[in-house]
Amino acid sequence: MSQPVSAPSPAFVQQLNFHARDASNEAAALQAAFALGLFGHLPETGSGEPVSLEVLAKRVGGTWRGTRSVVEPLVALGFVHLEEGRGYSLPASTAAFLRDEAFIAGLREARRWWHPLALLPQAVRAGGPVAWGGASWDVLGWYRALFLSPAPSTPSAEARDFHDRFARNPARTLALVTAAELDVLVKLVRGPVTLDALAREVGASAEALEVLLGALAAMGIVQAREAGWGFTEAAGRALDAQSLPYFQRALPATMAYWEALGHLDEAVREQRFRLDLRDPETARRIYQENASRISSIFASHLRLSRQAATLVKSMRPLAQARVLDVGTGSGVWGAAFGLADPTTHVTYLDSPHVLDAVRPHLAKLKLEARSELWAGDCLSVDYGESRYDVILLPQIIPALPPSELPSFFARLARALRPGGLLLISGYLLTDRRDGPLDALYFALRRYVTNEGDVLSLPEFRALLGPVGLTDARGFDMPIQQVVIAHRGDVAWPDVAPSA
């Protein structure tokens, strides 16, 4: 009788997903803070007056919004201290290692490698240095130094953690990207394989491939066995044939932001955005790719969205309800509400090329007869008056310019019928904007692409109250959160709000 397969370790899966998605955002914040000289403009905690965000932005020569996008993750990580109502300072542990000249020299060297790291796939294929910026870069040598050589001495455990996040985290992300691009992970799913055989199969230099495998081994993903290189037990459970394709889909999206993140300090100081999503053509390309990626995981997201529909249904009936899904993406949120009641009608609003990804899902779910596809720009269309019982905003607020939000919410509120609900899904920051970390990293991406912001519940209430949506609460969902707002004319469900 076969033994049951153990479930993957949640901690290992979380770490793996962090290295695939958010490690580059974290490293970019640390490196930008270093390049901006941000740490040098803060007093040690308890030894001087904390510095306000406005003053800090002036000192680093950056915008208020850009400086905030960099410093907020540092607060959540504990490298910067925030005193409510006063400002920022440096904990004694941070200040100590940032006074160490050898440590600072190591950070300066690590920062030089951000852009050459992106050429790791080329280096592994060729087996030697690669060209970038008119110079030759020994990327493989840098990986040997980071992962295969004894770790350099650091002034403290806190300094070691800082350096790991600053230098090794972006290299870990590129190791995963390269392993996926060269089909190394796909080959290892089938079982252990010798180095020479694997090199032939993926078209790489054996010596260079061994460096890549060494970095993956340091991450706990692969190990050398008698039969050859294979997954560790933890990686084998987390990256099986079913889950590996889902995991690898996140990597191209991460790389789409790589250059922009490497110029984060430039964006803060000069407001020059290397991936400007306010440019129509750039936005069309990125959002079309995103819609395609989300469509590939439509089924799993539909299960989660249906939980939100159940929450709304506990507040008001959905029979004969008219639902508007603004910025629908793959259509997964509107579809969840369409499935919640056989008489619900859903309108899906997005750009024409995104709506093309919605049609197949509606056909498969047999929702076409109760659906309308509305091609338009959410910031310019006329929503009308008292047309909808429920309006959905599926993760689109961070894509909208903050200056547009007051009028946007006013037009949505006008379009809600009495007893209507506005549901906003996505990340929700704490009231102090000091977490959760994944939400702050998402906010950093929005800044570096010249988009909108991630908000806290008080910030949402400040926008919604003036347009008549005076009652708003946040609720935890399995992956992210939802904010539900109304005019005070709907009873809240017997579910504990998140805030």
From TrEMBL:
InterPro entries membership: COMT-like, COMT_C, COMT_dimerisation, SAM-dependent_MTases_sf, WH-like_DNA-bd_sf, WH_DNA-bd_sf
Domain O-methyltransferase dimerisation: residue ranges: 175-235
Domain spans labelled O-methyltransferase C-terminal: 313-468
GO BP terms in the entry: methylation
Record's keyword terms, sorted: Methyltransferase, S-adenosyl-L-methionine, Transferase
Record Pfam families: Dimerisation (PF08100), Methyltransf_2 (PF00891)
Protein's name in the database: O-methyltransferase
Organism: Myxococcus virescens
Taxonomic placement: Bacteria, Pseudomonadati, Myxococcota, Myxococcia, Myxococcales
